[in-house]
Specification:
This protein is of the alpha/beta class. The protein is built from 16 helices and 21 strands.
Length: 460
């Protein structure tokens, strides 16, 4: 399925554009205008055409209105339909007559509502299938592509640019994630709400993301797959990492899925086996979905031979427990490594001399620097977790600078950080984030991140 005109349109018609500022049609038109689609595309000057379709208005937000999409005297690459469900079929006929390049049906009231809605959905989609016009939805939020300033949704704003494609069956979840992404400076290459998957299914979107140059990892929120066989055939051929949060695992969850997207959730054990067989990383929470997606998108994968550096022995023990539960192998430090640390003259007399390597609470940046560089220079250590607890003498920013310097030196070995604290660790955490070093305020998250990179290495 060719989705080029869906993701990279040069002209967009909003069918159901409205002057009501609280309406979906107004929100979508405003987002296209204010998001910059018609001003800039791929960081180059661009004048994307935007058309408002409303037979009862002359202009909305400065855009000329047309009575029907067929009245527009230009080609339309993408038609966004946001009219009541009972009108969508008539609009679909117009779109087919116009030979639009692609369609997003935002409108709800279809298969998710029962038999009558399902039949209406099938009638509408059959019209588009005959002309091979791809349709996203219905019952969806739409899509966002930050790299081309395309916000074809009724979400309030657009997230930062990044390298994670988020494909979701929940439009409301996508909306909330966008707001979260702005606060946390989390970048996306695409956010796509697929709704009922009446034509374009999840595997079509995954295939597209796999070829997208902006995308380095794919994050999925899945409730159900309409064609599991095609999904499996698709992911078998994809080299980019895929991270999935599967909803509807329990009996209660399956019932909720049926009322949400009009689909059956299926047997979770089948999904779980497929994810494992085809190298998809499964997570349990929304936080984990985005934490892991970002790590596998931006950090090098590694072998399962890991070391921990910490200035707090207790935290080292807790991290070691998490490693044991997640199958992360903490290697035994060799005598030659201990000798190098001893001869540096920087180690505290009571430092642990084992993995986790406890530098003791008074560790300053220089001690961290010696420990980090010594461990990463060893061929038998392939990744590092650096833990910082907050003591009176702790120099959070100084420690962060040491870590960033080591990251640049040891590019093929991931460094994952856990900086525990709040106010007095802010500068160090901000510096790590600016320099693309994963940092968490939670030991388990740090271990999960390194575990994902190990899993990725084992499956490729």
């Amino acid at each position: 399925m060719n989705l080029e005109k869906l993701f990279n349109p040069k002209s967009i018609a909003v069918i159901g554009a409205s002057r009501d500022k609280k309406s979906v049609g107004y929100g979508i038109l405003k987002n296209l205008k204010c998001g910059g689609f018609f001003k800039c595309r791929f960081n180059r000057p661009f004048r994307g055409k935007i058309f408002a379709v409303n037979p009862n208005a002359k202009k909305i937000l400065g855009f000329q209105c047309y009575g029907k999409v067929t009245d527009i005297p230009f080609d339309v690459d993408l038609a966004i339909i946001c009219v009541p469900s009972k009108i969508v079929k008539k609009v679909a006929y117009d779109c087919v007559e116009k030979e639009v390049g692609s369609v997003i049906i935002i409108s709800a009231g279809f298969s998710e509502t029962g038999k009558a809605g399902r039949e209406l959905e099938e009638e509408i989609i059959s019209l588009f299938k005959k002309k091979k016009i791809p349709v996203l939805g219905p019952n969806c939020l739409g899509l966002i592509r930050p790299s081309s300033n395309l916000n074809a949704t009724f979400s309030r704003t657009m997230p930062p640019k990044g390298h994670v494609s988020f494909i979701t069956q929940s439009g409301a979840l996508a909306d909330s994630v966008i707001d979260w992404a702005i606060v946390n400076d989390y970048g996306f290459s695409n956010i796509v709400s697929c709704g009922n998957q009446a034509y374009i299914e999840i595997h079509h979107l995954v295939q597209w993301a796999a070829k997208d140059k902006e995308t380095k990892a794919i994050a999925l929120y899945i409730e159900s797959l309409k064609d599991g066989r095609k999904f499996v055939e698709c992911v078998k051929k994809i080299n980019k990492p895929i991270v999935v949060l599967k909803a509807g695992k329990t009996f209660t969850g399956k019932k909720a899925v049926s009322s949400h997207t009009g689909s059956l959730a299926g047997d979770y054990d089948v999904y779980k086996a497929a994810f494992k067989q085809f190298g998809i990383i499964e997570v349990e929470t929304i936080d984990e979905l985005f934490d892991i997606a970002k790590v596998v998108a931006e950090q090098p994968k590694c072998k399962n031979e890991i070391a921990i550096v910490t200035n707090g022995g207790g935290c080292g023990v807790v991290a070691a427990d998490h490693c044991a539960k997640l199958g992360v192998n903490l290697v035994e430090l060799k005598e030659k490594t201990i000798k190098k640390l001893d001869e540096s003259g920087e180690m505290h007399p009571a430092y642990s001399k084992r993995n986790p390597l406890d530098l003791i609470g008074d560790a300053l940046p220089k001690r961290y620097e010696v420990a980090i560089n010594t461990l990463l220079s060893e061929e038998y250590i392939h990744g590092l977790i650096v833990i910082q607890t907050l003591q009176t003498m702790t120099d959070s920013l100084g420690d962060a600078k040491v870590i960033v310097k080591a990251k640049k030196r040891f590019k093929e070995k991931p460094i994952i950080c856990a900086f525990l604290g709040g106010k007095f660790t802010e500068k160090g955490v901000a510096y790590l984030k600016r320099n693309n070093v994963p940092v968490y305020d939670n030991l388990k998250k740090a271990v999960m991140a390194i575990s994902a990179l190990i899993e990725l290495n084992n499956r490729n």
